[in-house]
Amino acid sequence: MLEESVSPKKSTILQQQFNRVGRVEHGSVALPGIIRSGSIGCPDNTFNMGTMPSAQQQITTGQMHRGHMPPLNLAQQALMGTINTSMQAVQQAQADLGEVDNLPPLGQDMASRVWVQNKVDESKHEIHSQVDAITAGTASVVNLTAGDPTDTDYTAVGCAITTISSNLTEMSRGVKLLAALVEDQVGSGQNLMGAARTLTGAVSDLLRSVEPAAGEPRQTVLTAAGSIGQASGDLLRHMGEGETDERFQDILMSLAKAVANAAAMMVLKAKNVAQVAEDTVLQNRVIAAATRCALSTSQLVACTKVVSPTISSPVCQEQLVEAGKLVDRSVENCVEACLAATDEGELLKQVGAAANTVSQALSDLLQHVRHYASCGEPIGRYDQATDTIMTVTESIFTSMGDAGEMVRQARVLAQATSDLVNAMRSDAEAEVDVDNSKKLLAAAKLLADATARMVEAAKGAAAYPENEDQQQRLREAAEGLRVATNAAAQNAIKKKLVNRLEIAAKQAAAAATQTIAAAQNAAASNKNTASHQQLVHSCKAVADHIPQLIQGMRSNQAQPEELSSQLALIMASQSFLQPGSKMVTSAKSTVPTVTDQAAAMQLGQCAKNLATCLAELRTATQKAHEACGPLEIDYALNAVQTLRSELQDARMAAHDGQLKPLPGESLEKCAQDLGSTSKAVGSSMAQLLTCAAQGNEHYTGVAARETAQALRTLAQAARGVAASTKEPQSAAAMLDSAQYVMEGSAMLIHEAHQALVSPGDAESQQRLAQVARAVSHSLNNCVNCLPGQKDVDMALRSIGEASKKLLVDTLPTCSKSFQEAQSELNHTAAELNHSAGDVVHSSRGTSSQLAMASGKFSEDFDEFLDTGIEMAGHTQCQEDQIEVIGNLKNISMASSKLLLAAKSLSVDPGAANAKNLLAAAARTVTESINQLITLCTQQAPGQKECDNALRELEAVRGLLDNPSEPVSELSYFDCIESVMENSKVLGESMAGISQHCKTGDVPAAHTHDAIAEAVQLMKEAVDDIMVTLNEAASEGGMVGGMVEAIAEAMGRLNEGTPPEPEGSFVDYQTTMVKYSKAIAITTQEMMTKSVTCPEELGGLASQVTVDYSQLAHQGRLAAATADPEEVGFQIKTRVQELGHGCIYLVQKAGALQMSPTDSFSKRELIECARGVTEKVSMVLSALQAGNKGTQACITAASTVSGIIADLDTTIMFASAGTLNPENEESFADHRESILKTAKALVEDTKRLVSGAASSQDRLAQAAQSSANTITMLTDVVKLGATSMGSDDPETQVVLINAVRDVAKALAELIGATKCAAGKPADDPSMYQLKSAAKVMVTNVTSLLKTVKAVEDEATRGTRALEATIECIKQELTVFQSKDVPEKSTTPEEFIRMTKGITTATAKAVAAGNSAQQEHVIATANLSRKAISDMLTTCKQAACHPEVSEEVRSKALHYGSECTTGYIDLLEQVLLVIQKPTADQRQQLAVHSKCVAGCVTELIQTAEAMKGSEWVDPEDPTVIAETELLGAAASIEAAAKKLEQLKPRAKPKQADETLDFEEQILEAAKSIAAATSALVKSASAAQRELVAQGKVGSILANAVDDGQWSHGLISAARMVAAATSNLCEAANASVQGHASEEKLISSAKQVAASTAQLLVACKVKAQPDSEAMRRLQAAGNAVKRASDNLVKAAQKAAFDKADDHSVVVKTRFVGGIAQIIAAQEEMLRKERELEEARKKLAQIRQQQYKFLPSELREDER
Questions:
Q1: How wide is the angle at C-alpha 182 spanned by C-alphas 176 and 183, nearest 5°?
Q2: The CATH number of the domain where 465 resides is what?
Q3: Is the sign of the CA dihedral 1547, 1549, 1555, 1560 positive or negative?
Q4: Contact (Cβ atoms closer than 8 angstroms) between residue 446 and residue 484
Q5: Residues 1624, 1560: one domain?
Q6: How far apart (Å, rounded) are the C-alpha atoms in residues 311 and 297?
Q7: Rounded-to-integer distance, Cα 173 and Cα 87, Å
Q8: 3-class SS at 1619?
Q9: Which pLDDT does position 187 carry in this prediction?
Q10: Are 1437 and 1451 within 8 A, CB to CB?
Q11: Which helix (H) or strand (E) holds 726?
């Protein structure tokens, strides 16, 4: 190939090519041999010789062709991964369908036949629901892949494909089982397997056709989808579950084809329009719209073919409706394109007529589907009237208070009842049976009379609409009419309700099957093990209940008129609700942890669908139960009698040797089920007896139903044990005993029913007790028939027989020496002790193991008893013999208890405390043996102790093999403390053993080294366990160390002479206030966490401990500097009292942490927390008494800090364009108020300055007055800014910035006043006070100028620039001070802030050149923000401890230089605006270059701060996307938590309502939903910017994009965190553990973080884009929802305050004390409020770093 230079338009694109991927085919490449004639190789032939031709060269020119697919995007790549995974699942299903399941041989008894029938029904239902999901998923794929590939939602496509593959996998298993069950039917099983394989192949074809890299034609996809529909129908028909109404399917297809024909006609009409269109663009648009219309119609036909076999499924109907909507939209688009293309009326008329034809055909199709959805049943004669009556009566009940609405509803009600009466009379006339005719006429008369009463009541209500008694009469009359309607149409209503219940049960079972399949599919990509295990557990519980629900449906379908069938369905539905709801909760909580988006979407959709079905099932069950009545006792009696018949049939099969276990049954499983169920039967029967004796019919019915369910499990287990055992006699005994249990239980239920009929009858109660005793005896006999139990009983009898040897008067003569007897006693004791351990272990194993272990134990006991009696004969003293015999009796008793405990545990391993009892019995056996050995081995000193220790170690060593099993009643922390104490004793004891062994036995020196080595190993082991225990104690939150720390801090308060103070009382007072408030806040948090999250109490208690230690230290210094001394004594006393409260609080926190569900501990903790809060207020009161004025300054400073933070939030809302007036008002309405309030603030400033040199009272008054005045000033300024409207946000920001400067200056002035209070005139603090006062006056003057100029468009820009210059100068003064910032920041954050300087500089130059006031205002606002951010981060970064002094000085220097240069630039802009000349404009460039040079130096300095460890971050846009989605998931999880909340129950009292909790929950739910929508909109906005190329990983934009993306990340996290806090506060508030104030602050935090997210998203976006409009709407929704919650909480707080009653004391002294106490409480609450505002401001300032520099607010 020759290469030459070519033009770009003819260049060759070399790119990756996606080829078709085929499947491997096996075959032989060898071809059969062929024998040919030899003439070709004849030597007579001639040969030609020559040379090969030379190389030819050919040059081809022409247009370039793209012979490859474009590269796949990330979504398409994810879809390819999903398809590949699904294809593997399909291939596995294809392989599994090769042969049917291999079932064990089944018997022919009734239980076996019932099992087979139930399994067939369950399999058919599951397969049907799975086929429904497959066809619905196929239709979804068809619908989702219809449009342009660039617009396809590939995640949704992947979800549909995942649904298909997961259900296909489950379907293949069900088909194999069903084929095995119906294999005896000729050909049925193989036909079923063949149909399933055909469906699997069709699914495989569909997956290949939708691969993004395949590029298959659209028709291939539709053909594959149609094949799936055909195969699905064949499979259902082979299964006997096909749609019964084939005519309906034919009509459905004909209607779909009618839509297609109408659409084809419309396409022709549209092409006629295209031919006459003059504009080519419009012509192409018409052609494209017509083409889309044709495609959507063909797609509808294909979708109809797919879902037609399973059209009874709601999900399939939904997909067909969705396809119809696509056709409808395409028709509308085609009509709009035609209207825009031409004005010819005739053509447009034809197009319109064709469109109407398509719409009508589509309507007919959808109406046909809806008709089938309602089961095709005509509305009965009574149905519509009764439905109307029920609905309208509900409306009347809810319309109480609105007489007009009640009367209107009454008219509708009267018409409906008239129709019903006429229908009943007509039926009565046509009725042949005279009795039935009379019943109908009587019911009609009853209904007519009730109607007449209701009409009269309605007339009274209409005549007197204000009379509540008339409305109440109408309500009562409507209730009577409702009752009469129920009585008249009872049978029809009951039939309808049961039918609805059957439909709801079917849908719920199908939805549960889908959810289980989705959960299994999501397991592979779920990274959270805990949530996965929880989901698996809940799925298993639901899977166990689905068969019962299906059996109830089948029974009701077979016998719809039978009451027993109806009750069975109702009971099965009630039992299904609880596990179903738990599975929904588990599935929803698992969705965020699933990494595969398609699997997560499938699981989320299935969980949502199941929740909807469960809600419908719950409603249908309740209504059906009400209609059928309380007949649980009859149902239970019939169920027990059926069980008795099944057991009798099984007994006959066992007699003939034909009883076989069912699949899945084993001897051990059935025995364990029987043992555990026997206790459940006993418990339910006891409840039945109690309820029957009390005459409570409802609870007696419930107990009877539970008894029947437990007996069902017992009967199944008994049959399984009998079928699994190999001994015919044991099987017969088991079945006989179980049959006796059933007979007795039936008699018991019957007697309970009789006791309800005649309550209080002594004879009936006596019969009931006798029957109960007989049932209990039968139940014990049944349990004793279990394998292994007989062996234990034999061992018990053997021990009893052997123990009779101890009852003789004289012992037999000894045949062995003392040493031999002692040695043999030791040997048999060790054997018996070992056998006891075997009994303990075997009780957790199989029945055969227990039988063997118990037999061995009885043999060893017999041998031990003989050697013990032999040893007793060697004792010379009669008393010693008696003592030995007594010990042997104790061992006999302990051995019997051990076997009884092992027997109990083997019957029911899950029984409470059974394992503890067994372990205790084993320890008793060991201790009894030790006592006997000790008594018999007195001769060797130390020998008995060593032997006893070895036996005890041998006994407890087995416990370590099962560390999760409890062995004592100690709690976790008690165990830790016990082990720590005993470990110390163990170490000391081992040292003692070593020492005494070396000194007691000197000749045995050869053993000393071994002893020393053993002791060393023991010491190391003890040390290791001590380290481990200490770590566990610290992690578990043990509070002993915290209590000691608090007590130590309290003790230091009174220790001798305090150290020399380095500060004044004011300094210590300020610090103590800080730590006191911190303790109060943490205490409040502990109250909340005690309810919502008790495991976090340990960390909070630790924080209280740390804060109190600091408080106590500062209190000691404050007491030393207080004047007079009484104040210091008071401070120490109050701090001491607070310490006691903190100790109690920490102790209660530890107790609650160890038992989180203990309500008593929660109440104690809350009481202790309240006590701590009160003691904090007493500390603050003591501090205030020491310096009232400075305390007032602290409070006022806190108030101003909160105001500044509130203004920051208001500025963000103004910047986002969401600060709108609520009514029609102008700025002029507020101007005078602003000016008046500002002047009053100047007067307060003067009093504040003079108060520093006067008394504390005057200073306090001045501080309080200034705080009140600045509050009023900010309120009126915000109102003024709001009245200007969001059309001019920059001017709003200018005005709010002006008052913010005033507030900031006032905060500085108050701080200076506090420091200067009481100081002499020449003190340096007085000079700082005067300087702060000047700044204050300057800023107030600037505010007044801004207010006057804000409406003057010619000067307000100039005024804004002047104010900004003054603000920057003040910022520079603070920057150049020696104060060290409270926190540090990173160099990269500093670099980001310099970016804002560059932007602001460019805008300043542009504003100077344009001289337009709006540009100047924008420059002023941006400059203020940019310089403030730069100075703050510059100082924070420079003061980082790791930054060298040289770099720090350099950074501070260039920060000042940059600010000075920027001030010069702004002053030059101001000069240019006032005197615009060419020379002045040229100076702008000079100043801007100066600023740019300083910025460069700053960046280089920041780079020097980084060091050598700096690396570039990851792609910021990806991080932003992930965080936004994570925030959305967090918010949705919080919203789900809110959905589970209910208002706490309160006792009903007069004149009180319970509405506030409901308002809290509704408002909080609204906020959670709105924030979820907001974050999703922000995610869409970010994706839009990435698609537009405005955000990406291009190097030139990396810093800017990273800045924007990190801002978006921080904002999303803040929104999610704020919403989570709101939900937590709502939960605590509803439960009564948090105040309305906390709820209000949480809502305001949501609003503030929302404003930040809005600003962050609007930085780079187009303001008129669709995503931004949605984002703005979502933000407004959050703000409205937050405002609603705040208003509701404030109103509740106000109402609560109004409800408080105060008892005024009449005595003079008591009254004065009461006033003082009230004033003290008021001041304390005010201080707490201001401190809370200050903390809120600090939190906002510390977190608010995410915005780009041009929009960032001040961080201080």
A1: 80
A2: 1.20.120.230
A3: negative
A4: yes
A5: yes
A6: 19
A7: 17
A8: helix
A9: 54
A10: yes
A11: none
Same domain, 1100 and 1204: no
Check residue 622 and give left, alpha or beta (phi > 0: left; psi -120 to 50: alpha): alpha
**pLDDT of 997:** 66
> What CA–CA distance (Å, rounded) separates 539 from 517?
9
Label residue 742 exposed, middle or buried (CB < 10 Å: 0-12, 13-18, 19+). buried
Q: Is the dihedral of CA 460, 466, 467, 473 positive or negative?
A: positive
45 pLDDT higher than 50: no
Residue 760, pLDDT above cutoff 80? no
Tell whether 901 and 953 lie within a shared domain: yes
Instruction: For residues 1038 and 979, give the distance between their C-alpha atoms in angstroms, rounded to a whole number.
Output: 15
Taking alpha carbons only, the member of 927, 910, 815, 822 closest to residue 868 is 822
Both 621 and 644 in one domain: the answer is no
pTM of the model: 0.46
Residue 898: both structure tokens together: 């051990």
Residue 75, token pair as written in the block: 């979504």
Q: Which of 1329, 1351, 1373 is the last residue of a domain?
A: 1351
Query: Is residue 1138 located within the same domain as residue 1122?
Result: yes
Q: Which of 1622, 1687, 1688 is nearest to 1650 (CA)?
A: 1622
Q: What is the pLDDT of residues 195-253, one digit of tens each?
A: 888 989 999 988 888 888 777 888 888 888 889 888 888 888 888 776 556 777 778 88
Mean per-residue pLDDT over the chain, rounded: 77
Q: Is residue 1119 within 8 Å of 1132, Cβ to Cβ?
A: yes
Please count the other Cβ atoms lying within 10 Å of the Cβ belonging to residue 375: 10
pLDDT tens string 309-337: 888 788 888 888 888 888 888 888 898 88
Among residues 139, 121, 137, 138, the alpha carbon closest in space to that of 241 is found at: 121
What is the rounded CA–CA span in Å between residue 906 and residue 915? 10
User: Nearest CA to 1318 among 1246, 1257, 1241?
Assistant: 1257
Please state the φ and ψ torsions of residue 559, each to the nearest 5 degrees.
-135, 75
The tens digit of pLDDT for each residue in 51-77 reads: 444 444 444 444 444 445 567 788 888
Q: What is the pLDDT of residue 580?
A: 92
- Provide the domain count of the chain: 11
- Is 97 domain-assigned? yes
Residues 914 and 983 in one domain: no
Provide the Cα torsion 943, 947, 948, 950; round to 10°: 140
Residue 1742 lies in a domain: no
pLDDT at 611: 92
Tokens 């400073």 found at: 1197
* Cα–Cα distance, 1490 to 1510 (Å, whole number): 29
> Within 10 A of 508 (CB to CB), how many other CB atoms are there?
28
Domain holding 1586, by residue range, is 1516-1543+1554-1699
* pLDDT 10s digits, 341-353: 888 888 888 888 8
Q: Which residues, in sequence order, are CB contacts of 1516 under 8 Å at separation 6+?
A: 1601, 1602, 1604, 1605, 1606, 1609
Give the single-character DSSP code of 243: -
Mean pLDDT over 1402-1417 rounds to 84
Name 526's bridge partners: 594
Whether residue 824 is predicted with pLDDT greater than 80 in this model: the reply is: yes
For 526, phi then psi, to 5°, come to -95, 115
Helix (H, G, I), strand (E, B) or coil at 471: helix
642 and 682 assigned to the same domain = yes
What is the model's pLDDT at position 1324? Answer: 73
> Coil, strand, or helix at residue 1057?
coil
| pLDDT score, position 1691 | 63
Residues 6+ apart with CB under 8 A from 618: 577
Give 1713's contacts (C-beta < 8 A, 6+ positions apart): 1705
**What is the phi-psi region of residue 1589: left when phi exceeds 0, alpha when psi lies from -120 to 50, beta otherwise?**
left
Please report where in the chains the tokens 């939190």 appear, as a residue.
Answer: 1739
In this structure, are 956 and 1014 located in the same domain?
A: no
For residue 64, is it within any domain? Answer: no
